[in-house]
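> example.struct
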């Protein structure tokens, strides 16, 4: 199954994780999402770890491994690895978009490389970066398995900051769009022309130009403000 743009399998479901879902795939495989959306945050400063930490071993030793500022862990290959608190999610990309007028933020974590910057508008399944092994990567592999625990951790939050199941976004069933596209068309509809009509719309009329009696409208939805100069 293609999750987040490539063939990946679910290693930890949302039902068990409760805030996210984990997808295992090939190291350095491309990451992308369907739709059109804006990049609102990136983290790019971490290096890929040579191996990962066994999930069950971490749960058993979490309190013992905890240090001021992070975790001093033992990896699957028996190496000592300190993971600072600010590195737990590793390299990541967080994007924002809308589905049916509802705003969502999607975060992709533990990335190897990040190819986008904050403010970029992404569309046509442009590659955001590659799957990696940065941050606190916990693997469900057996202790004898020396391969990477690389995976992509996917989180989705709604406009109220609540976590929701990311699988429809990861699979492409739910597709993000930019709210501005639909809103701009709505805002540019021809406004009322008569003075009487203008005066009845409280808070909309901004000012009238004394030279040609042209008026400007303030159209606002949420945090977005539009200034429209109507045509005659």
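> example.seq
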């Amino acid at each position: 199954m293609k999750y987040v743009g490539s063939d990946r399998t679910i290693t930890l479901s949302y039902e068990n994780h409760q805030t996210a879902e984990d997808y295992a795939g090939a190291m350095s495989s491309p990451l992308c999402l369907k739709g059109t959306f804006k990049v609102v945050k990136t983290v790019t400063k971490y290096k890929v770890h040579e191996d990962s930490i066994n999930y069950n071993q971490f749960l058993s030793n979490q309190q013992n491994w905890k240090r001021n500022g992070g975790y001093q862990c033992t990896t699957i290959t028996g190496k000592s690895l300190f993971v600072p608190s600010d590195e737990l999610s590793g390299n990541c990309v967080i994007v924002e978009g809308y589905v049916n007028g509802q705003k969502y933020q999607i975060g992709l974590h533990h990335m190897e490389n990040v190819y986008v910057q904050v403010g970029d508008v992404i569309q046509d399944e442009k590659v955001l970066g590659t799957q990696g092994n940065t941050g606190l990567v916990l693997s469900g592999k057996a202790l004898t398995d020396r391969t990477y625990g690389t995976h992509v951790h996917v989180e989705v939050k709604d406009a109220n900051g609540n976590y929701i199941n990311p699988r429809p976004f990861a699979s492409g069933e739910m597709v993000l769009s930019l709210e501005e596209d639909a809103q701009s068309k709505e805002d540019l509809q021809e406004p009322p022309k008569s003075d009487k009509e203008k005066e009845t719309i409280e808070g909309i009329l901004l000012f009238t130009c004394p030279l040609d009696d042209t008026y400007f409208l303030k159209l606002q939805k949420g945090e977005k403000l539009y200034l429209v100069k109507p045509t005659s």
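> remarks
The CA atoms of residues 139 and 149 lie 5 Å apart.
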